Amino acid sequence: MLEALSFEFMQNAILAGILVSIACGVIGTLVVINRMVLISGGIAHSAYGGIGIAMFFGFSPMLGATLFSIFIAISIALITLKDSSRSDTIIAVFWALGMAIGIIFIDLTDGYSANLMSYLFGSILSVPKSDIYIIASFNILIFLIIKYFYKEFLAMSYDREFAILRGVPVKFLYTLLLVMIAQTVVMTIQVVGLILVIALLTIPVYIAEKLTKSLFKMMIISSILGSIFTLIGLYLSYNFNITSGASIIAVASTIFFIVILYEYLKNLIKI
Predict the structure, then answer these.
(1) In order of start, what are the domains of the chain with their CATH numbers?
(2) pTM here?
(3) Does residue 87 contact residue 35 with C-beta atoms inside 8 Å?
(4) CA 263, CA 260: separation in Å to the nearest integer?
(5) What are phi and psi of 113, to 5 degrees?
(6) Hey, which of 17, 33, 99, 236 would disulfide with 230, CB 3.0 to 4.6 Å?
(7) For 194-229, how does the pLDDT look when each residue is reduced to its tens digit (9 = 90+)?
């Protein structure tokens, strides 16, 4: 593995993995605490529609995924804020519609030869240095937004009704969070693919929640855990010649089930 570090593609992969893990740790914490995992799944899978549209019209798939997922995120926010009673149905519709649009446009694209697997399961080893700068810039933007609105996000996450009564702009923050989820999803697609995005957003947070109840500490621990999972996954991927995205999630899932088993045995002993 040490000799692989001399290659630029591996250096880029490590940097991208760590940066995306940090973004997932911060945004994923808000996703889990606000019970927005299903919404994140809907945005993630609908991004496929943007990829298909971009392929059909001949521009960057990642740009297409970004614009389309942000559009879907804002649409979900506007609809669910007016009627939250059927939010799961609305999200499921966007989820399926996004995938359907992507498949249709890809079918209509003449001479399409791109590797669809890279979008479904990630292609971290092919992340260019230019994308590293974009991901780093987005991380900085996330930090600035979270720092500025931290108290408001904290209030919204733990008691939304109380936050509204205190004058917190919950609707704005909810929409802003969905837009940040959309952009985080697009970045994560490059690392683990859109099918596995939710795992990297939620597994580190689940484990972190067992270690602390502080929102800020959860963000930090989740980011560290995500980075560790990514580095181990890359190591296994390189040594055993397996898909890096699947390897990363396999590592995260293994630790996830170990934690669950530990919790079960601990509670069993108490009984």
Answers:
(1) 3-270 (1.10.3470.10)
(2) 0.89
(3) no
(4) 5
(5) -135, 5
(6) 17
(7) 778 888 899 999 999 999 989 999 999 999 999 999
